[in-house]
Amino acid sequence: MIAILRGVEPQNALAVADTLIEAGFQIIEVPLNSPEPLVSIQRIAERHGAHAIVGAGTVLTAAQVDAVADAGGRIIVSPNMNPDVGRAAAARGLYWCPGVVTPSEAFAALDLGASVLKFFPAEMVPPKAIAAMRAVLPQDAVVAAVGGVSPDTMSAYFEAGVNGFGLGSALFKPDYSLDDIGKRAVAFTDALETLR
Fold first, then answer.
1. CATH code: domain of residue 125
2. Tens digit of each residue's pLDDT (9 = 90 or more) over 117-151
3. Residue 29 appears among annotated catalytic residues
4. Which of 133, 162, 170, 171 could, after both became Cys, cross-link 157 (CB 3.0–4.6 A)?
5. Which domain holds residue 161?
């Protein structure tokens, strides 16, 4: 599961990350349209980078890839499938997770070395559609559903062949308390455990 911390502020980044790591999350994404995202990425990576994968979301350019890598990020998540971003991530040895919706985008992303295919927004790609694409994708392709995922909808996506989930506002919003974030995180980790 990928925790998407859209809007997190640097002064809260460590406390939020600590809460999520304690709940069992191992991948943390700070979208670049958050306040001072590179500061948050650097702080989280310094504390948790040895046992979690930390990086950025909403990465749209090769220059942003370099900035994330320089901040200590190891994962590049994008809403789209931009070959320049993929090549830049590969050049820096980073995990690249492009947003895809169609088989053409998915296969092009895999050809460029995508680590994870991010079906986004998942509301536009229901489980039946992912299952159909899974039938033609390589068996070892890693697929994540991102956007609108809740503990209640995880099962249908998992049965369709999804390997992971990107979790945004159902998990974190800047105005959620740490206690609320912790409870939401546990609800997701518990839901995932029932799928295994």
1. 3.20.20.70
2. 999 999 999 999 999 999 999 999 999 999 989 99
3. yes
4. 162
5. 2-195
